[in-house]
């Protein structure tokens, strides 16, 4: 007599295309979590793209950086630029003053603190930026493709099961119910993916880059996107091409935000240290002045003491 394990495998051998059916069931089990992850990541990218384009504070900071760059390059061919490469933001901490203490990033933070303090919290406009910068867009495209292909495999196995007879009736019923729901989910996901692609194209145009220059197979593009002060007219391009430009934009801006915060904190620490130093010097100067007065004999504490005694006496005898 066969044991339960042997009986199970014996029955399993009777199922046509058992390996294909098991793969379909494995896809069905992981489908919901895959779709949820994809939808979440696509929404993050969409939100980050919108936030970058709509942030008036970020735009003003970019304009200020361009003005500073033109001032530094005055009298040269680069002194009247209408834009700059986005990866130039990462070089602001490398450009130092003659004393080698203050960087251009420090100066930018100082200038904004004094003249435009309302711009200092620009990172609050970019809530989804850091999360978007961590999403591997190449993997995202591959996962989208895997979901679509997985659904095709389900349809193929369901069609092939029509000839299996009674043994596949339960399998077919479960799979048909799953397919009805899954197809609607995937259609919604593809629609969101296309929307993100259009948003990415729009962001590329906003930064003056041609999405067509970034082939899908290349992965992340070189980080040399031009920042223009005026919006360029929107030009429709293939949805997925400029998703990789979004990766470049988000990664650069995340680093820029961190550098900006660090320089601002360093400025504040330096200002506090300078303030404390001045306070100490002022205390020393006052102490030195008091010593000088006492030595000259022109001033003592007696008038104050006498005044105190007189006031106490008057209060004591007041009616």
UniProtKB/TrEMBL annotation:
Entry's transmembrane regions: 240-260
Segments forming domain FH2: 1-286
Pfam family, one: FH2
Keywords: Coiled coil, Membrane, Transmembrane, Transmembrane helix
PROSITE patterns: FH2
Gene3D superfamilies, per the entry: Formin, FH2 domain (1.20.58.2220)
InterPro entries in the cross-refs: FH2_Formin, FH2_Formin_sf, Formin_homology_domain
Span list, region Disordered: 290-319
Presence of the UniProt keyword Glycoprotein in the record: no
Coiled coil: 261-290
Feature: compositional bias, Polar residues: 300-310
Family affiliation: Belongs to the formin-like family. Class-II subfamily.
Name of this protein: Formin-like protein
